[in-house]
Protein: Probable ATP-binding protein YheS
Organism: Kushneria phyllosphaerae
Amino acid sequence: MIAFRQLELQRGGVPLIESADFMLSMGHHAGIVGANGTGKSSLFQLILGQLTPERGEIALNGGVRIAHMSQEIVTLSRSLTDFVLDGDHALRETQAALEAAREAGEHHREAELHGAIESLDGYTAKARAEQLLVGLGFAQRDLERPLSDFSGGWRMRANLAQTLFKPSDLMLLDEPTNHLDLDALLWLEQWLVRYPGTLLLISHDRDFLDAVCDHIVHFDQRHVQLYRGNFTTFERTRAERLAQREAEREKQQARRAEIEDFVRRFRAKATKAKQAQSRLKMLERMEDIAPLRAESPFRFRLPCSDKVSHPLLSIDHAAIGYGEAPIVENVRLSLAPGSRIGLLGPNGAGKSTLIKALTGELALLKGERTEGEHLAVGYFAQHQLDALDLNASAFTHVQRLSPQASEQVIRDFLGGFGFRGDDAFEVITRFSGGEKARLALALIAWQKPNLLLLDEPTNHLDLDMRDALTEALAAFDGAVLIVSHDRHLLRASVDEFWCVADGRVAAFDGTLDDYRLWLKNRLTDAARASTDEVEEGAAPKEDRRATRRAAAELREQLKPLKKQRDAAEKSMEKAQKALEAVEAKLSDPVIYEADQKARLTELLREQGEWKTQLESDEQAWMEAEEALEEMQAQLTAS
């Protein structure tokens, strides 16, 4: 159990948390959500004892082992596997003691320590560490390389692997998906679902929160509220509470007006003076119900260039890669106005490399890249955040693009991205990753592209900004190609998927759920092939075309059931609308007059028929959905 009792916290004299009072039982998986800067990460520092609250306390069961993902790595000379193993301090200490006993010839002590290592599951530790690293996207050949060989994003993956490996009863994860691609995110999601301890997870990925969490801790305007259920349940429950609060506020405002009117009319009358004073005191005691805060601080559009070309951009018979080694070959693709494409593929298959080739940043090894006459590319990638001028403000960045633009136009534009008032003129040296990402997106929008190439645009963005970006992309008139691990963004923003795998780029005929299945089968087949090679020596590698064919067959098996479910859902909607229309007519008192008897009988007959139809459709939908879930479970387990 972890309890937060009347917790209050300030940072730099600014209140962050006021009177937080809630409790989580051991084994609960709680997602922590709220706008950036509301105190989510500070809560972790309080739990770890790195901050002291102004008031209240955090109570933990005695002996609770805490795993927390560090943001820094100091032992860069350690190999990946050794670094992950270092997360189990008790195991490492026991291994060191065993080595010392061996050197001293203390055989009895050595036997005791072998038993201790067995009890710590130490003899499977290396295999477990390697499994974590491979699941998070590292190649088998990388596992003995030193951490210094890897970039910052990959080092953060290693930090995450060490945190997962560490024996724990309570795990604290702060944005663990920021440096992951979709494949690694799906793997992590399943790992955390099976985690038996208590989990506190800060994340802005609604699909990830839905899959992993059974409680939501919401930070809003210095208050912390615990909700049961996953993120979707939280959104629905909170919306209901906000609507109820607004209704109460309106009722209170009406009551205030009545009291004020009474006091104004009767304060001077001797016979009513006492009652007027009584009502004044009542007015003073009434606690204000705060008006609802605006849903999101972000409101922006992604304007599209007035001129377009058909196609905007094409690549023909291309080989793409670095040096002389192609990563993808025989690439033939064309991006037309209005195209909306999500790019899928295993880690390292070449998704980001393909986007760089599309922008022209990376020259083709062979083949042709042809730009349309009016092509205007808006390109977002993480390295572009580092290219921002840290000594300039958001306003200056935009002004450099359009020196002729008026100050008010620029300020209004930046306000939609959350840079309001003096924030637009603040030098960005101290900007967070999320603020830099917002500025990079703003600079793209300002230039009115007709082709957006977005490589993980949601990293560091909070939920409000992700939702605003999703809405802006939905309204964008140009072409879009996205690499993202945010499944909500992909579902809402793209119409088709391309898959980069095995050195090829091809259309992927399926949904994100189909891709999860495809990926699982691919990993299973790769593991089986690896085992076969170990057992049989130089056994031939699995035919990749056969693997793709098998995945396509799995999707074909699911298609009829999906069609049945979707057809039943459409019929349900039609029946529901018809039933509502009939019942609206039945609610009219005129229909019950004597001369309307025939019409009433007809409406009652229609009502009965539509109710029967709706029940039938609901039954059909449930049967198709259950059959679909059962088949998906069978395919996943196979």
About this structure: The longest strand covers residues 14-24. Residues 556-637 form one domain. Confidence is low (pLDDT under 50) at residues 289-294, 533-542.
